[in-house]
Amino acid sequence: MDRIAWLIGHVRSLYQYDIVSLTLIQYRSMSDPATDQLGDQHPHRQDAAREPGARHPIPRGEHARQRVLQAALSVLADEGLAGFTMQAVAHRAGASKATVYRHWTSRGALLVAAMDRGFQPFPLPATGHLRTDLIELVSRLEALVSGQPFPQLMAVFIDAAERDPALTSLQVELTERRREPLQRLLLEARQRGDIPPATDLELAVDFLAGPAFYRRFIAHRAFPDDYATAVVDHVLTAIGHSTTDKIENP
Q1: What percentage of the chain exceeds 90 in pLDDT?
Q2: Rounded CA gap, 22 and 19, in Å?
Q3: Domain coordinates in residue numbering, the chain
């Protein structure tokens, strides 16, 4: 009986010790927000403690906006639309999701802003001659589709626009913006009388811009030397442009 009484007393003392220990653990967890109910640090808080510089909130303003947009274009080119998330963009920019959401309320809004930044039109040339101005624009287009990240962005966006009517409208708007410099040069040339009044400007722009896209995205062929010059000369000959500036600017 004495042995049984001793065992009962021993178990009771252990139970009382556990109650005290649990009370202390719960008290610590209430006073330390970095611990959970069992007194262990939360994994994400441990990571934050180990990596104090892992996320530096980028400053508010235009610099922050442009930095996030550049990161968005990078994610879109590398991961495609499926990997284009607010979290992925924030991580690439070295920012928090709160910083991203401060400027754009949704993934769609960020995508639109990023594509708008990546599809800015070329500055208008001012050589004073239609042929040389067109050669400069077509040469820039050739360089654009030859390097990265534009071809990757274009491929992703064309695919997405085929599936989403809202993105289709955006693609039309961005494409029209890129066609504008060519249209303006041709319109001014028609007003000056350099090309016939009946010239179909839309078709002429198609003929000028289309070959570069076909060669890069469909045929996957490199551009030969003087490709832009050959395209411009063929189009101008077809629409009846005077070739006097060809002699002035060989």
Answers
A1: 39
A2: 5
A3: 2-50, 62-118, 130-248
Nearest to 172 by CA among 152, 158, 156: 158
Q: How far apart are CA 185 and CA 235, in angstroms?
A: 14
Q: How confident is the model at residue 245 (pLDDT cuts 50, 70, 90)?
A: low
Residues 179-203: pLDDT tens digits?
999 999 999 999 999 999 999 999 9
Just give the CATH number of 62-118.
Answer: 1.10.10.60
| Phi/psi at 41 (5° precision) | -70, 140
- Give the residue among 98, 109, 110, 106 at the shortest CA–CA distance from 57: 98
Which carries the bigger pLDDT value, residue 36 or residue 81? Answer: 81
Q: Which pTM does this prediction carry?
A: 0.66
Fold of 130-248: Tetracycline Repressor; domain 2 (1.10.357)
Which tokens sit at 52? 């104090």
Q: Which of 157, 162, 21, 171 is nearest to 77 (CA)?
A: 157
Burial-class residue 121 by CB neighbours within 10 Å (0-12, 13-18, 19+).
middle
Distance between CA atoms of 232 and 110, rounded to whole angstroms?
A: 37
**Is the confidence at residue 130, as pLDDT, over 80?**
yes
∠ Cα 92 93 95 (to 5°): 115
